[in-house]
Amino acid sequence: MDKKISVLFKGDKVIWMVFFFLCLISVIEVFSASSELTFKGGSYLAPMLKHIGILIIGIFFTLVTLNIKCKYFKIATPILLAVSFFTLIWVLIAGHSTNGAQRWIGFFGFQFQPSELAKGTLVLATAQVLSAMQTDYGADRHAMKYILTVCAFIVPLIAVENLSTAALLCVVIFMMMIIGRVPIRQLLQLVGGVTALAVVVIGAVMLIGEDHNDALTQQAQAAAIAQGGKVAVTPERKGVFHRFDTWKSRIDKFANKRDLPPDSVDLDKDAQTAYANIAIVSSNIIGKGPGNSVTRDFLPQAFSDYIYAIIIEEMGILGAIFVALLYIILLFRTGRIANRCANNFPAFLAMGLALLLVTQALFNMCVAVGIAPVTGQPLPLISKGGTSSIINCIYIGAILSVSRTSKKNEAAAADDDDAAVVSLTPQPKATTA
After folding, report:
1. CA distance linking residue 170 with residue 160, whole number of Å
2. What is the full per-residue pLDDT of the chain (433 aa) written as tens digits?
3. Fewest CB within 10 angstroms: 122, 202, 365, 380, which?
């Protein structure tokens, strides 16, 4: 029986343990945090059963992916790039909008988020470029040009509807270039260029966007109403700039953050931040226990973007640290696997995917505790989701596939060392009768 299980769940056992712990926490916390979905759907178990079904599908794809050899990932790269580019264009033209963001497309009755596929595809392409252009002194100076060319076709299309995802993806690609030993001078030039571009984008957002929740706007509206006038309704923006208002509101809220007395907090306009803080404070360090959250009934997206606040409320500080450590263990264990790889491509691929998962997870945690501005990033492998959960499972499967290759290489190296030791050991001379 144990042999059959080990054959099925091949690859690094530590990665498997982290993966199953994250899935278990996901089932418990999504069940606890889905009271809003339970109220809307009228079924207490339906949200959890749907999420468990998605995780089972994800685990199936994990098992399939870990049995794929790394050379086939290379072959799939051009196809995945074409699919990612086509679906990102599709979602901009005819995508479904949720919470003001057009990020999903309908596909045979299912909703699909192309940016999730595009993230892994860009990591895959970057790993292939870095591995193909490695020299004895690091990556060839032309490697960055090819990487940026691929990014130019993918990142802007993601940024139009999901700026935070595009920014995190760029951070991951930059870290991969550091690991891939791209020349320092080129990296510094890239940092300078990106900084200048960020200043331009932020300036455009602050100039063009409108924060409808700021104090001056609210005072003007109140004065107009008091004088018997009507409040002018700003028409909804269309095209590229329709997300500028949301971005400006988040920048203003984060930049002007200040401590307010409880009676001054507007629970309607600042529901996410306010109830997340209430969830964290009400944990009383030790937590209320699984399923005992109170804030889940009021916190928007408690089962998705802010599930870490619910984890803190129910599991306390130790539970929050344990979840964070799982992601850190995933990163360091993947680093050890990459260090054992005989070839560059699987090492870069595994590290890129691990960085993608862990960077998003840490950023989600920072948002939940108020360290980073509000974004729409879910907690990988824990938050309730469809496309994101399944594709994150595929990322884990790819890391496990690399771990299988690295183990074979390590075993081969050990056999070579044993053979060398045997050959160096003096052998007894044959005696003649």
Report:
1. 14
2. 556 666 667 888 999 999 999 999 999 888 888 766 666 666 777 778 888 999 999 999 999 999 998 889 999 999 999 999 998 888 888 766 665 556 667 666 667 788 889 999 999 999 999 999 988 888 888 999 999 999 999 999 888 878 888 999 999 999 999 999 999 999 999 999 888 888 887 777 777 777 655 544 444 444 444 555 544 445 555 555 556 666 677 666 666 665 555 555 555 556 677 778 888 888 888 888 888 888 887 777 777 788 898 999 999 999 999 999 999 999 999 999 999 988 899 999 999 999 999 999 999 999 888 887 777 788 999 988 788 899 999 999 999 999 987 766 655 555 554 554 445 555 555 454 4
3. 202
Q: Which two tokens stand for residue 140?
A: 């060839």
Q: How far apart are CA 380 and CA 356, in angstroms?
A: 10
Helices 70-94 and 143-159 sit at what angle, rounded to 10 degrees?
A: 40
Distance, CA of 354 to CA of 331 (rounded, Å): 6
Give CA–CA dist 374/363, Å, rounded: 10
Tokens of 374: 């509000």
- Is the overall model pTM greater than 0.70, yes or no? yes
Give, to the nearest 10 degrees, the angle between helix 387-424 and helix 13-33. 160
Q: Is 292 helix (H, G, I), strand (E, B) or coil?
A: coil
Half-sphere exposure of 326 (CA within 13 A, CB side): 24
Distance of alpha carbon 430 from alpha carbon 157, whole angstroms: 75
Residue 152: what residue type? A
Closest CA to 105 of 90, 115, 83, 118: 90
- Separation of alpha carbons 108 and 106, rounded Å: 7
